[in-house]
Amino acid sequence: MAKGDSINNHPVKCYGCSICSYICPKSAINMKLDMKGFYYPYVIEKKCVGCRLCVSVCPIGREETFKNKMADSCFAIKNDDKTRLLSSSGGVYTAITDVILSRGGDCVGVKYDDNLFPTFSVAIKPEQRDQHRGSKYIQPIIYKAILEEIEKHIKLGKYIVISGSPCTIVGIKSLIKEKRLNDEKILFVDIVCHGVPSPKMWRDYLDALEMKYNSKVIEYSFRDKTKGWRGYHVRVQFENGLVVEDSNDVNSFVNLFKENLSLRDSCYSCPYASMSRCGDITIGDFWGIENIDGEFSDNTGVSMVFVNSTKGIDILNTIKPRVKYKSYSSRVIIQHNLHKPTEHGLDNKHFWRIYKKNGYLAAMNRFAKGGKLFFLYYYKKAIIIRLKKLKDRTF
Question: How many angstroms separate the Cα of 36 from the Cα of each of 112, 237, 356?
Fold first, then answer.
């Protein structure tokens, strides 16, 4: 960021980590929503004194500084069945954070607030940590108060585990480096990330559901396991007691996410979508485990875990007696975002034009619910996939 930059000419590569806003000594940088509904830094020129702290802390262009090289093997991990049913995959996050809590430490992760908006929070008790469980496919907010609390607890010498998408992890690591804080007791856990959808679109989606069902959404799950672990099973509970699962309108948000239409611009060129990671531990769903080891696979959930540092090795060795695990070569891993960033969805520009002009319902009806453009979209996609296969075929 620099004096004169604004929300209307933000850098495409900006991750929205908000660290520049936090570190500004004059409170001259606010995070505001752009037209797509993503948070970007906005400089208040009359407050800016040109100290360039925001520039020095920004992780863009310094990606290699924060990367660790993954091991040549990964682990498939399963916690107990009760924990796994409450988790998105195999429950490894609970096992990791149990270690930190037992050492008197804190857990920094993402929970839903009272309005079902994903926000970072600091948990000091298991019941608080449990709110961090479960996938939340929206870019969360990390408020200044949370960053202040993290900084305070680092200075107190407490153990801390910080989990999140790679771009958030890197923002916090950059802040710690800039402030010359001791990170010896900090464990960074990054997730294998497909990309982050628009926070505003998430609010528009909830508003649409609440309008249709005439009640407030009070509980939400992207990965309900009533029907099993594999795939996305959306479950929405309303204040009036109604529960809706996997309907067209309920699934519309996750369908746009899966088709790469609702993601932040920087996600399509993410430098952390690789086998070099920024966390001490990398976790995700072990998709494809049934094709690798049918005996270990089940439909309750299996976590994929990479250990990238000596701190990560210490935690892994500590949790091993508490979980079921197996080791595999990293060559068997099929997760797309461990090899390259998510690609733009087909008709991505058309989708955003409709959303910005006519709102969520119009975009949903055309691209996620079965409207005319929905079928044209998939017809076009099928043709492109077919042409790619023909091009890649060797004779």
Answer: 21, 27, 7
Cβ partners under 8 Å of residue 175, min gap 6: 19, 22, 23, 57, 147, 151
Q: What is the pLDDT of residue 110?
A: 96
CA 247-251-252 angle, to 5 degrees, is 115
**Which residues of the chain have a pLDDT value below 50?**
1-8, 370-375, 378-379, 393-395
Query: Which are the contacts of 209, defined by CB distance < 8 A and separation ≥ 6?
Result: 217, 236, 244, 249, 250
pLDDT the model gives residue 330: 86
- Count of residues in the chain: 395
Q: Are strands 186-191 and 281-285 parallel, antiparallel or unpaired?
A: parallel
Instruction: Report the alpha-carbon distance of residue 292 to residue 393 in Å, rounded.
Output: 25
Three-state secondary structure string covering the chain: CCCCCCHHHCCCCCCCCCHHHHHCCCCCEEEEECCCCCEEEEECCCCCCCCCHHHHHCCCCCHHHHCEECCCEEEEEECCHHHHHCCCCCCHHHHHHHHHHHCCCEEEEEEECCCCCEEEEEECCHHHHHHHCCCCCCCCECCHHHHHHHHHHHHCCCCEEEEECHHHHHHHHHHHHHCCCCCCCEEEEEECCCCCECHHHHHHHHHHHHHHHCCCEEEEECECCCCCCCCCECEEEECCCCEEECCHHHHHHHHHHHCCCCECHHHHHCCCCCCEECCCEEEEECCCHHHHCCCCCCCCCCEEEEECCHHHHHHHHHHHHHCEEEEEEHHHCCCHHHCCCCCCCCCHHHHHHHHHHHCHHHHHHHHCCCCHHHHHHHHHHHHHHHHHHHHHCCC
**Tokens 């309303």 belong to which residue?**
238
